[in-house]
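Why does residue order matter? Because the sequence determines the fold. Keep that principle in mind as you read this record.
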Amino acid sequence: MTTSEEELLPGTRRALRHRIAVAQAEGRAPSLVAAVVRGGRAVWHGARTCVDGHGPDENVQYRIGSITKTFTAVLVLRLRDEGVLDLGDPLEKHLPGTGAGEATIAELLAHTGGLAAESPGPWWERTPGSLRPELSDVLGEQPLLHPVGRRFHYSNPGYTLLGALVEEMRGTPWEEVLRHEVLEPLGLNRTTAQPQAPHAGGWAVHPWADALLPEPVEDLGRMAPAGQLWSTTGDLARFAAFLAKGDDRVLGAESVREMRTPAAPAEAADVMDGATYGLGLQIQHRDGRLLVGHSGSLPGFLANLTFSVADDVAAVVLANCTSGPLLSVVGADLVRIVAEAEPRIPEPWRPLSEVDRSVLELAGQWYWGTHAFALRVAADGLVSLGPLSGNGRSSRFRANGDGTWTGLEGYYAGELLRPVRRPDGALSHLDLGSFVFTRQPYDGEAPVPGGVDAEGWRGIG
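Structure:
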């Protein structure tokens, strides 16, 4: 019997089933459903429930809470990619009169706009949105609690503002824009603002007894862009694949990569936990791998979407209880189980389709002072520069088309790498943001800042 490489091995499937069974039992969740994505498609679905003879599948809706924010962020990035706005624009430029207009769009996406975490007034998750018909009702008299841009402070009202921004720029309600621009192109037909059967009911589980209490279902009104949506493991599996690779019908690969890039200054506790935030996505370091996604909760429901780009594995976990299993841990475990049991098989190595001799000339060993570095030419058209041994500054560089290169990450992100030639055309050195890299340590034939002692290298006798 042979198994397709797209399928998970029986042992892996059993480990996944065991993990969600433990989560449902120990977390006392009325039901819990999960999915795993690999290679851009769902390869496993699982469910556990307390109801005999009933097993929710990948088409049963659960409320996904703050995962809605990621959908809203996609809409904002689409506006940026169309040139309608810039992420550095203050909100006031496009949505005046909110009282929080000094925050930039990027700061609102990254929860660094200084806004309060919640809306004033009665508990907004358990009361009708009609109590907050205007943005002023959501923001209150003092929207800002912190200096703008100085710290990460998770804000539901911040995403309400982003939803209002989308409506202002499109001239259409947020829900309709989302359906037309994201849900329909990606085939997310079971993701909706209002529940559509079949859907799970939301429950509160008594903390000291095995007893249930039904939770109310409220329309969040103005705060819908922060947490309104209902979805399924099937739809969220497709959404996870999109967030990993992009889709030019919605957002290209470069823009979803930008969403996954840290954009918020982390609190000290977050540094210890290895967690930060991008543009509409949570980022964490767990079990030696970088995980990206978002969690969500509303009374009666918990949700989590987690993926590892490096492992090409994503997990979705949904439950219908107010509190219980830690779904972010469960999602990370599902990713780990697949990544460790069935490591990603790399694409075959292939040589360059053509060799640019002027680029190939840059390859090899270079010295920054006495530190040895290597410059390598990759098949994807990039070059990388990093230390030959140990830790140190390293980056990939993208060609600018004029013989120079721009750094893509780390210390050298955005910095210019410029090969410098002698009058006879021979390669002299590399200038990287004013640092001089030479073929030999402190090469006397290169214009090393500060000069090189005329007597050269010597011993002490």
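The longest strand covers residues 289-298.
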